[in-house]
Amino acid sequence: MNPAARWRWPAGVLVVAAVAVALAFLFHGNPGRTQPRRHEVEISGFVFVPERLEVQPGDTVVWLNRDIVAHTATASSWTTGEIAADSASRVVVAEPGEYRYTCVLHPTMTGLLVVVP
According to DSSP H, which parts of 2-47 are helical? Predict the structure, then answer.
């Protein structure tokens, strides 16, 4: 048997195995990481509900303004911008950490976003 022919089959098996692993990650994701989720914080009665929210990196947080006046959710590294009455704004969180945020229009309104790895 030709020595080169003997090694073709194992190389083909390695290629098939590599493709199988790649497809598994493509369709099932990294098994150690959950898929990004959507979370909601309702603004009602000049309060963020929930006041404390725990999320993972890559998750989206949506602030829903149920009040009749505009609000913001503003931390040191991100902001929703002004959210009009009966409107929403979203932020995709990337870095783990604790983010205290406030409404810049109503500074007594505060919340805490905890991003855990």
Answer: 3-28
